[in-house]
Fold this sequence. Notes:
By secondary structure, the chain is an alpha/beta fold. It contains eight helices and ten strands.
Amino acid sequence: MRVIESxxxxxxxxxxxxxxxxxxxxxxxxxxxxxxxxxxxxxGETSVAQAVxxxxxxxxxxxxxxxxxxxxxxxxxxxxxxxxxxxxxDSAEALGAPLLRVWTAxxxxxxxxxxxxxxxxxxxxxxxxxxxxxxxxVALEFxxxxxxxxxxxxxxxxxxxxxxxxxxxxxxxxxxxxxEALDELKLVAGSLAYLxxxxxxxxxxxxxxxxxxxxxxxxxxxxxxxxxxxxxxDLPRYGLLEYVADDDPEQVVRDAATLNGxxxxxxxx
Length: 269
């Protein structure tokens, strides 16, 4: 069994300034933060990333990863910056992030035409190769509306890209029962990076609940993650709180206490 660490995604508290996110993580006794590229640490603004890295180090909070939106659209999208990949990699390095969270193109799922799926694979491979050249890992967003909506879909991307730097995050599909969600996790556990931790109802992001309500799912999830193969370089595996009920900082504190309690009991068992 390997150690699981607790953390949070900064996008959970988009409304807070960077220093306030760090202070909240410290108060909640969270070990690390995944910093989002859509607000707190914009791609290419390396001075911002360096400042965030210093503040985290001073506070004793790890930078778990850089939460980018690379791959959510094709690189030839006219609305995407031409240097999007390089900018994200520059910021990840400046943050000291060991890996980047990336997407597969939104709107392209397993039933999409083969040419579209091939472009997703090509884009993902380009990201993995470029990240690996800088000593960075890559983790796929496990998300509805994409090729990585399901374990089978994530496996198809991982197998097609076939790059040692590429893994997948995991989060539960709120449309599934706990048993079904656990079956999905077991299928990707061999390539698992981190967990995005939340409790939503069937209505999705608009139907959020305290983490304590999800014990039936999350306690066995943590056990599966603790038994998953280690990450390169003995990188810790994190369970990252994401999108808490009512976007409430106090809910982060309560959910963190729940998560830390589960992790503590897991490590004692």
